[in-house]
Amino acid sequence: DSGVTQTPKHLITATGQRVTLRCSPRSGDLSVYWYQQSLDQGLQFLIQYYNGEERAKGNILERFSAQQFPDLHSELNLSSLELGDSALYFCASSVVPQHTDTQYFGPGTRLTVL
Amino acid sequence: GENVEQHPSTLSVQEGDSAVIKCTYSDSASNYFPWYKQELGKGPQLIIDIRSNVGEKKDQRIAVTLNKTAKHFSLHITETQPEDSAVYFCAANFGNEKLTFGTGTRLTIIP
């Protein structure tokens, strides 16, 4: 158990809908990262937050957004869902956003868009 | 660009034998190289990592070697056991905090 928690574990929804994925980092970790894992794209970085502020953006679609709250938990919002958004979404956390800081991954949320 | 290549994509070894997975990266600015193990239905679990100021790191049956000149690093698992069966991912940073992952190696240990 990494100490990173994610809810829900599974999510099934329809095209065009909006969902919110939640992540709680390890105790003491200030930085949160979101990754998407799909069969054809592998593990891809989406976005990073540090102490409530957006720090880096990767291949995140405009339909997706995220935020980190004062208690350091983070939410990833996915809207106007398409079939291709079906994937595993992982949250990771690290103490501080240093280049060599270890990232610990949560168990993921499996999103299925029908 | 930021790229990590991983080989092989699948690997089967007899229980007790060694397994080696290799990765190459594109940017000499990279200075952090973690390895993750992912079991079915679970998130990636860090098993070992190496930073660019060392060439080799070992933790019991697992070791990682880094060759910065050639821009490649490898995972070595000795005395493999059935519980080592999983998908293994290498990753690297490229002068920033985000990780770029390899495409994964599905390791199967044959009893």
Report what the structure shows:
The complex is a heterodimer of chains A (114) and B (111). Chain A is 0% helix and 53% strand. Chain A is mainly β and 114 residues long. In chain A, the strands form 2 sheets. In chain A, strands 2, 4, 5, 6, 9, 10 and 11 form a 7-stranded mixed beta sheet that branches. Chain A has a 4-stranded antiparallel beta sheet with strand order 1-3-8-7, with no helix packed on it. Chain A is globular and about 35 Å long. The model of chain A has no long low-confidence stretch (mean pLDDT 94). Chain B has 111 residues and is mainly beta. Helices cover 0% and strands 55% of the residues of chain B. Chain B is built from no helices and 11 strands. In chain B, the strands form 2 sheets. In chain B, strands 2, 4, 5, 9, 10 and 11 form a 6-stranded mixed beta sheet that branches. In chain B, a hairpin with a 4-residue loop joins strand 7 and strand 8. The N and C termini of chain B lie far apart (41 Å). The interface between A and B is medium-sized, with 26 and 24 residues.
